[in-house]
Fold this protein.
Amino acid sequence: MKFATKAVHAGKFQHPSYGSVMPPIYMTTTFLQDFPGEEKEFAYTRANNPNFVILENLLASLEDAAHATVFSSGLGALTAMVSMLSQGDRVVGINGLYGGTYRLFHSIFSRFGIEFITIPSASSTDVKKGLALNPKWLFFETPTNPLLEVYDIAALAKEAKARGILTIVDSTFATPYLQNPLALGADIVWHSTTKYIGGHSDVVGGVAMTNDPNVKQQLDFARKALGVNPSPFDAWLLTRGIKTLALRMQQHEINARKIASYLQNHQLVKCVHYPGLSTHPSHEIAKKNMRGFGGMISAEFNLSLEKTKQMITSYQLFALAESLGGVESLVSHPASMTHAAIPAIERKKYGITDSLIRFSIGIEDTQDLIEDLEQALVKMEQTSHV
Ligand SMILES: *Cc1c(COP(=O)(O)O)cnc(C)c1O
């Protein structure tokens, strides 16, 4: 089966008595045992629930993974993964990670003796230096936030594997529709399902996927032992959202491509970061890793910080909010929102300037979105002459 068919049919589940076409929601904390101590697939919902399994089978099928484990959130999935490490272990991360990922390592797990070291880029010099530190994991996100850099998963995984180091990829921006890191050699791929996979900005969740049954067992154990399970209702909502994942990703991309080229030709725009543009430094790697370029764009404007903030609040359709990947378009200002915790000098060094804006392009009509961007830019042009 191809992707769009799997998104609708995989993980299918039929209640033995009623034959409902869509899965029911198992809002139960506990399950009957036939005798004391019986080992059953479902005993207590912190450990497992039919709605988790339905979602896991569906996600594993889309990612072409042997196993999936679903969690309370993306960071719940990461917490479970980190719990597979021990005191004294080291993780090497490549620059460009989600802010909450840094925070989890630096503010929590560093106190438990897990060392997290960030290397500035995925260049072979930086990666060689990083791997020479003998970490347990090579850890990165691709495409990155907010500059949409794309890293060469196959090359990085090969380097890591040669040294017995696991490669772990956060593929949230790409979704399984656009890239499959396991097929490129990664050992674990994880997603915040809160974003494109759920797709409707109404549910928080996470998933980690692998081909290694031993890792799957450890992730299931971590969910039960740490208590980072989702609600059966949230798992059901995600299963429902995924049915339109292929359609949504197609429209996100149609809109993003047109908006990227619209912005690129505007005089108030200094630079557009979208891997689909041939001018983007990662364009060639993106073509190698991915089947498309997704719906995230960031752009730097020829505007002061004050003007940038003014423009962000003058959109009609683009809502000013954190998060991404929903059907509705969102806009954010990394320097004062997602990346505010990074000192200004560091931010600038990595290209996160005060006039950088990140757009999560929704699935609305393309023309309406461009008109919204246009009216805000016209306002800025008018006031900049005063
Ligand atoms: C949102 C996000 C996360 C964290 O996921 P939550 O579901 O919010 O816990 C991790 N990585 C990326 C790339 C994200 O966008």
Q: What stands out?
A: The first helix runs from residue 3 to 9. The pocket of pyridoxal-5'-phosphate is lined by residues 73-75, 98, 100-101, 141, 145, 170, 172, 192, 194-195, 204, 206 (CB under 6 Å). The first strand starts at residue 67 and ends at 71.
